[in-house]
## 1
Amino acid sequence: MPDILLRYQAEIWQAIGETFIMVGVSILAAILVGLPVGTLLYLCRKGNLLENRFVFSSLNLLVNIIRSFPFLLLVVFLIPFTRLIMGTAIGTAAATVPLSIIAFAHYSRLVEQSLLEIPKGVIDAAVSMGASVKEVVFKFLLVESRSGLVVGLTMSTISFISYSTIMGVVGGGGVGDFAIRYGYQQFQTDLMLYVIVIMVILVQMIQFIGMTIARKIDKR
Amino acid sequence: MMEWGLFVIELQNVTKKFGNHTAIQNVSLTVHQGEIHGLIGASGAGKSTMLRVMNLLEIPDSGSVYVGERELTTRSKRELREARKRIGMIFQHFNLVLNKTVEQNVAVSLQLAQVPKHQRIDRVRECLRFVGLEDQMDKYPAQLSGGQKQRVAIARALANEPEVLLCDEPTSSLDPHTTSEILTVIRDIHERLGVTVIIVSHEMNVIKSICQRVTVMDQGTIYETVQIESSGIPRSDRSPERFIKELKNDA
């Protein structure tokens, strides 16, 4: 182990912990909000089970707006909102607010996309068997799209890691922030490179795990 | 001359439009209980739409649909879902859930009908035995041939003991041999279970082989309904000698 990593061991572990919190909350937001929003986007689309132009356009616009912000600007723009609900706009906890918002917007699009790939005939079959909309979603759509949903969540998670590094700007901490403050700003280029290597390994692991699960559950 | 019982399905002045295109125009049709009724016509004649109106998979713009004593068109959503459970349907592309096993695909229709879990497995077995796939329960659709997939779909449609089986181009993506196989299963369902069958097909030989009455559709309307003597399902021979013989005959 290089000396410099040992010297900053405590800080690195703390930074990794902060990254895990930020990314973890983002994943939760993606699943708890992004999955339903993406499903609703799909269901309300023209020609689908809950066709509703108003709901579709509203959600579509909201997701588009969130996703068209350069992330740093979104963070700054949301500062008053973050302060309102977290009491502060600084620190790891506060950082989870803008992260959760970009997370649900990001993942809901991927959910919508996975659902759109399911052949319409499966829904015909479900409806002809007397399934309600809820049953169509849980017993058919989510089952049939499950590997796409996992691939999407893997891609989203990797993006969340990248977004979380930007949170260093508002004191969110995390590995990216550590690399910039201790590595780049203190001219310890080797430290920065080591951190980058850690991140690359982390992303590789997530990608590998995600793809392995997706392949395992895909019987199509 | 056969005696027809109560009608099972009746469409009265049904019209269905998709945007500016009128798929079926003011169509009235009665399908008798216990018959195998064919719907044939050129593509775009409205035969599939007419079938899909029968379980309100397509909601008509006007007109009414009766199944048995029930008028479907005035039902609440919940009642309509209940009524659909008594109407089985199979499709050209089988429409199985590819991430569910054969067993799970059949079981889901029982689940939707709130059949208790311990009764489900027996019924699933029974249905799969009927279509000759009892030994394939744990396979996924991707591991099956086209004909086997269609038989799973048939088992799924049979699970809730339907009174009516709607077949939308059931053999159109199958080869002639498998077509005969599937038609045999459909005829069995009709003969052994007394299920009324309605088949949409653009293939004349399919319609002629098992139907007793046939409605010919043209440009969204009924041209004529005729009673026929079904010609029987052709025995299909896949031996190389047969191919050679047919090749030479056609030449």
Note: Chain B touches chain A through 32 residues (CB under 8 Å).
## 2
Amino acid sequence: MYLEAVNLSKKFGNFYALKNLNLRIEGKKCVGYLGPNGAGKTTTLKLFTNLLRPTSGSAVINGYDVKKEPKKALKGVGTLIETPDFYPYLTAEEILSMACEIRGASKEGITRVLKRVGLKEWRDKKVGKFSKGMKQRLALATALVADPEILILDEPTTGMDPQGMMEVREIIKGLKKEGLLIFMSSHLLPEVSSVCDEVAMINRGELILYDSMENVVRSFSSKSVLVEFLQPVKSVKEIEEIGGVEGVEVLGERRLRISFSGEKDEQYTILKELLERGYRVLNYQSETIALEEAYLKLVGGERNG
Amino acid sequence: MDDTSDLRQILAVAKYQFLNYVRSRRLLALAIITLLIGVIYVAVTAYVGVGKESNALSLIRNWAGNVSFLGILGALFFGGDAIAGEYSKKTGYFLFPQPVKRDVIIWGKYLASYLAALLILLLYWGMAILHTLYYFSEIPVEALYSIALTLLFLASILSLTYLFSALFKNGTVATVMVAILYFFAFSIINSIAMFAGVEPWFSITYASAILTAVLQKPYPPHKTVIDAGVMKVTAYTPTLKEGILIFLAYFVISIALTLIIMRYKETK
């Protein structure tokens, strides 16, 4: 199972929302799709779900061009794009039945899916009465109800409260374990780093990074630690002399930021040295999340939209 | 039949769309309007009485005079925002990414709209038949022809409404535009054409005159010149064949254009 963008471009008037995207995502994994507002994330996902037609190139799913053969291409694909609305006089169960009948799938999974997204008690209620968060849960249920092998999710936690967001993340983690290929856009970096195995970044319609989360962490990890001491620091100079330390920034009389060269081993050695020299360390942690670092370096804090 | 054959998918879309219509307020509202028209007609007939020259054919012809109006209302209520609403209300984000061809979605929705509007027309025809039976204890065979033509008229008017719905992105705008077209534009065009002595063969509302013409014995002449003193006005009545052809042309051309538009229409 795979998704592939081949020289995929989408132009709105004179503006390229997506420019020559080449990206192949394959296997049982979760890939996060990151970028600032207006970068082309949703455009990409809409091209993969037959909501938009490419200006050039193609969006291919399992060998089928979505534009030319949408029925075959989207057969095993569950989608959640933006926050869809539903026919207001149908119940949650009927919406899922409709999805099953269109897909020729069994309706046996409806109860299980409703339970999974936390809407079991609402199965007989008309969707017109649902809140935005509940509609988002139902949308996720429609994506899951026919047991897809590929999931395309556009900011799946949009409109949800913190509890709902956490539940959806747990659902996605569970689906990953079940062997699905998940392609998920988000602008929530902690969400992507906690859920995804790989990350693709896009800016101004162009792909700027596609790598495993591990490699991104390795390449972009901030090589500095925040250190908090029990007592005021006696001598900053003494700390600067520790092997591997490249610089020390004083943040307070008991707090320092230590920059260093090397990897995890060097980070550990510095801590060990501090303790051996009698410093009573209360807290010692990597300062920033690697993904955030990568995002800021590559996107540069730009806003496209 | 394959579980995901086009036909099965059309029926699935139609089933749930129809269910949504049946439970909606718009079906109830249109049913109330229809019942009101029927009740008023029955009450007036009871008050004034049925004339000695009247017969089953003339009574049911009077009823048939409102069928095209109700058909247009049915098309507006169930077709005006059928496609545009998928974009403006964002239900398309659920439906369009399903593994289903756009043509299949359109046919499924069209079928549901047709059945919902047909319910209203059948309710009206039901009242007309019962009323006629009450006074004359018979139903002329011409009434069945008119009912059959009603089915064709509904198919064509709904097809044209779908075309407008596909052209616009906002359901309300689409519905208002189609209402203006049916209730004003076509009437004005028909009147101007008659004054100019030109037969308005291109107008679907002109063709709808066959719904009542078929209930006249003999069938009215195609062309009548009315001497109005200072000027002569030529009035046209479509022949049965002509009316049917106009209905068919509207149905085929409108639905074909709708399908083409929908193949290219995007959800931005």
Note: The longest strand of chain A covers residues 15-26.
## 3
Amino acid sequence: MSDMDDFLPGAPLTINWAVTNKCNFKCSHCYSRNDPSDELDINVLFKCIEGVAKAGVLSINFGGGEPLLRKDLMEIAKFSSQNSMRVSMNSNGFLIDSGKAAELKDSGFSKVGISIDSHMPDKHDNFRGIKGSYERAVKAISCLSEAGIETSISTVICKINHNDVDALIEFAIKNKVKNLNFHNFKCSGLGYSNKDKLDLTAEEWRDFYLHALKAKHKTEDIDISLDDPVIALLGANKNDSMVKGSICGKLSLNIKSNGDITPCGFIPMVIGSIIKDDLKDLWINSPVLERMRKKTPKGKCVTCDHYTECLGGCTARAIALTGDMNNPDPHCWRHES
Amino acid sequence: MKIFRNPDVMWREEDEYKSRAYEGLEKGEDVEKIGTSVLYLNGMMLSLNILGTEIWKRCEGSMLDEIVSELAGIFDVEPIVLKKDAEAFIAELKEKGYVRYG
């Protein structure tokens, strides 16, 4: 396994593709439902998907908005899997019953992640803004499993659930999902407007990760993922991946509903268009991606022993809260030495 | 013991790096640090060099000795050294969940 210091894959390995911004939910941390961008016509999308496959992308994860609100999602997914890419989706699960799960399976979906933010129905419903959403999400997981689709639960960690790690794990095991993904809270879109109400303090993030990492190591029944680069401060991830810091722009890219390409869904910096630009060329030559891959430490990062592992933490958060990708991730709890 | 790739692993060869590695190999250069393929599992990437890639491509139910015997025809390495390297490499892939024994 080779040294990764200078290794950049020739194209993204995976694409997060927001096929629509429409949503049937009213989540208070949403980054996309107020985005007025257009949706691409299916024939334009097919051409773009062909280009993405030709570039060598291995998988597409459809998102939004709620991707199932796009009437032609099944055709889009089928076309993608016929072009040899693995297809997955993030959904709130509200529209998934047995019939829809079977359709998803037939369209080539191998994995579907369902957003559930609490093991308590009322808490989840309040956070997502729709009564009955918990029940529908749980039902969706069971329908998807019955249809032979791998399932995961995606939980956005914030004020409402950061003390519920054990209960969330127990809930995920009970519902027989393969993965439980704890997502760090991003201050983008409504997440920015509601950050004072929802985001944790740096110390609360430290305590959450200490607890979650301990639970992850003693839990064998389920894979738990923590996608936050700041956990490198706790010695996590050291040998797990050859990519340090955020994976955005190093392994993955985001495509918006209108075809604009951004490093990730939470970074509003458009680096090109999937309709007009050559994906491989953008991937290699985008000045924004280059800056993200070779960040220059600032502030407390300059003297931090962990910088080589976390590379300043989550770039999206640094940009959203400080305006500079090189600034330390505001979730980092380490004090300046 | 047969060796199988984990079907959850997505992977591809990196054409440009691969050409560079084979060109270097022909010139007798050290190409060990050139990644010629990427493996992607659960959001994590591994990059394999030219030897690693050729071993990986053969993890489709082959035995270690079969893999080594095939690779001995491609790489100018003592079979005993090749076997030791391949064994250690496959054990690492197994530990990381990229292959299984059957």
Note: The longest strand of chain B covers residues 37-41.
